[in-house]
Amino acid sequence: MYLIGEFRETDQVASAIRTLRAGGIAPVDLDLFSEEPVELPRGLLDRPSRMSLASVLGALVVGAAATLFVYWAQHNYRLVTGGMPVFSWWATGVITYEMTMLGAVVTAFGWFLWESGLIRKGGRTGPVPEVAPGSICVRVRCSVEHSGRALEAMRRAGAIDVERGGDD
Amino acid sequence: MWDLTAIVTYVISSLIYLYLPLIPDMAQLAEHATPWRRRLYSALSLGWTGSDREWHALERVMKLMACVILAVAVSVHTVVAWDFAMSVAPMWHSSIFGPYFVAGAIFSGIAALIVVMAVLRRVLHLESYLTRHHFNNLAKLLLLMSLLWFYFTIAENLTVWYGNEPKEMAVFGARTRAHYAPWFWTMVVLNFVVPFVLLGVRRLRTIATSTIAALCVVIGMWLERFIIVVPTLANPRLAAVSGSYAPTWVEIAITAATFAAMMMLYMIFAKLFPIIAVWEFKPHPQEEEG
């Protein structure tokens, strides 16, 4: 089941999350909803990401693929170069660089879509609260037996409203 | 291939970088707009809910993109400069052309930004969002870039003049003393003298003067492109093909149409999408009170 608590202050949200986590709720079962990004203390609700690594790998793959394609194209259709090499690293370097950057950008964007869940509609479960301006909603997924403690934790932290949000 | 890969990379990166901060705002707009706009914003917001996972991912990708797009911007303007520099044409074959073009792009970019900000501020009444602090800081940056541009221009022309190579001197003479001299010196006045006076003196640096200086720079930087391209093509290494140039009505019409198309695209964009990221900006309290 889900519980949704509405808060006004970031400190209250931090306090609620601290208590909920101490009570055995895992970060994966906690979600915040707000109209603007919420800055929480480091380590409280970190969302580990491999975006940088994915971006570097994407850059390397696309850069290498583009270089190989140029090499293949130059040898497949040989131009008369007057004794100069058919394939030159100097001339290909710009193409390699640009395509490496394009690989980084496109992979970062794709990873963002994946990591944020925006293209994984099937993976989305649970009710999405309507967030009033200036409010922060905390959504908790917990078992029925844990729900009483979770509800109490949010009320004590300063939630102005806590409601059940539907079953998992 | 250089230009193709550079420009494609730049266009795709810029579009993604423009689109990313619009996603949360479009999710909000989808709740208030007319039916067809609601469909457009809903589709473009990709079902954004405002969860912390989405915010984390958005902030992360925007930081990453900010780094990458800077490297792409430098490389794109350098590649365009290298297209000129590698042609061995007089006054194009220069090793400082890369940084010269990058500095010029940043210079004209800041100027265009100030002009657009001033117009939007006036037309859309964004006085609380686009404050004098923004203009003041951008004006200082414009002044810095003006000095840098002047340094590059001096470096470029001084070395040619001192080298005294006949073919290069023909272009240098055409630029500074003969047929194209009025355009060259107008460019120097618009890109250096006007910004230096209006932005360098603190008391003169207002929103209005910053906009005037920026408008001068936009015109001056267009003249700079003209001065780079035309005198060299009119005085090539093969004397047999040299001549003078005056634009035809077709060229003038194409240039005017390009400016008009750009303005129209920008106005359509400003009409459809928030011109200031709503979730990133709060009105400046002092300006609101004033």
Write the layout of secondary structure elements.
The complex is a heterodimer of chains A (168) and B (290).
Chain A: E1 2-7, H1 10-22, E2 30-34, H2 51-76, H3 89-116, E3 136-141, H4 144-157, E4 161-164
Antiparallel strand pairs in A: 1-3, 1-4, 2-3
Helix pairs in contact in A: 1-4, 2-3
Chain B: H1 2-19, H2 22-29, H3 35-45, H4 52-85, H5 97-123, H6 132-163, H7 166-176, H8 181-200, H9 207-234, H10 249-272, H11 285-289
Write structural notes for this entry.
The complex is a heterodimer of chains A (168) and B (290). Chain A has helices at 10-22, 51-76, 89-116, 144-157, and strands at residues 2-7, 30-34, 136-141, 161-164. Chain A has 168 residues and is of the alpha+beta class. Chain A has two domains: 2-35 and 131-164, 2-Layer Sandwich (Alpha-Beta Plaits); 52-116, no CATH class. In chain A, strands 2-3-1-4 form a four-stranded antiparallel sheet. The longest helix of chain A is centred in the middle third of the chain and has 28 residues, at 89-116. Chain A is rod-shaped and about 80 Å long. The relative contact order of chain A is 0.30. The mean pLDDT of chain A is 87. Chain B is an all-alpha fold and 290 residues long. Chain B has helices spanning 2-19, 22-29, 35-45, 52-85, 97-123, 132-163, 166-176, 181-200, 207-234, 249-272, 285-289. In chain B, helix 4 packs across helix 5. The mean pLDDT of chain B is 90. At the A-B interface, strand 2, helix 2 and helix 3 of A face helix 1, helix 2 and helix 4 of B.
